[in-house]
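FORM 7B - TANDEM STRUCTURE REPORT

SECTION 1: FIRST PROTEIN
SEQUENCE AND TOKENS:
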Amino acid sequence: MQKPKAREARGVRPGGRTARNRDAVFRAVRELMAEQATQQVAIADVAARSGVHPTTIYRRWKTPEALALDVAMAGLSQRSPMPDTGTLRGDLLAFATRIAASISRPDGLAFLRTVVAASGEVELLRGRRDEIQAMLDRAPKHHLRSDDVFDGLLAPIYLRVLFGFGPPKPPRLAQLVERLIAAGDR
């Protein structure tokens, strides 16, 4: 029997120590964010709470902002998958409605602040952008890209919340969706 090469033996271990560390770090970040809603989570606090060495955390995430964003995006993808209603209009309206509802929750504004604080960590947002593009790609005969959804649908929702006006009501969400679809038909 041949021994695996050292490089192959050091590969990613799904369900191994890496997964346990990630789960412990994510749990610690969620707990700390719930306890200190207005403060940035510190790597040292995450390390102490999770039992994962700070060097391991820095090696994987580099900055507290990147760590917080990764935790926030993982939670978003789990609790709010892309809708599939059978129509682009239905998908966009369901998506906008979910976003407006989630941003209204107590942790919604904290999530938004996390995204703003980690604005340089765009690679971590790529997964959600890809999910949005996949939703758009299911609908033929339009020219919408994920950036159009960010500009025409997400930005108005998030800006209203950031400026203290709360998320748009359902009739306004429907108007935003109609405008977006009309822009994609040009």
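SECTION 2: SECOND PROTEIN
SEQUENCE AND TOKENS:
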Amino acid sequence: MSESNPKEIVARGYDRVSYAYRPTDCNDWDSDYVKWLSELTGRLRPGDAILDLGCGCGRPAARILSGDFAITGVDISPVQVARAREEVPGATFICSDMVKIDFTPASFDAILCLYAIIHVPLCEQRRLIHQMRSWLTAGGLLLITVGHRCWTGTEEDWLGVKGGLMYWSHADIETYRAWFEDGFDFLSQSFIPEGDGGHSLLL
């Protein structure tokens, strides 16, 4: 693995930490995701198409949503995608770099991108945000977690997994808001604390 290639670090990293990050016996409904997703689903109709960018192993978001919506998940980790196909057989999952994938304009009624865009090199994130907007129908919704403070770096043995190297890159919330104002309206914003920092959740 090239430790200078962020995409390889993220793909191989999640391959390695997949079960530590999301155990097979975790309770998907006993999580903050239920509250976050309810903000989204309350504005959608049953059967609407949702794109889950950075879907991971399909838990918890795709599993929570799959009974009522048409879910397409994208993740860069082959292990995560293989698990997702088993965990959520009624959804469609694609193993791909979310920056390189493309969909027909107006393909989705909503997009999720939870704890995922922060693994994309910062120089590629603004273009990805514009891609997301093009994939949404008129009035489509985006639920996304972004950085709160500017930081780029890696962590070795992430989650206590030997060899589990991981990469993050994010701007500050003011920068993200400026990027999203070009094409999106803000419905809500909240802060999610984590350690001595945290993330911002935007709808």
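SECTION 3: OBSERVATIONS ON SECOND PROTEIN
The chain has a mean pLDDT of 95.
Helices lie at 6-21, 32-41, 61-65, 78-87, 122-135, 173-180.

SECTION 4: SIGNATURE
Preparer initials: ____
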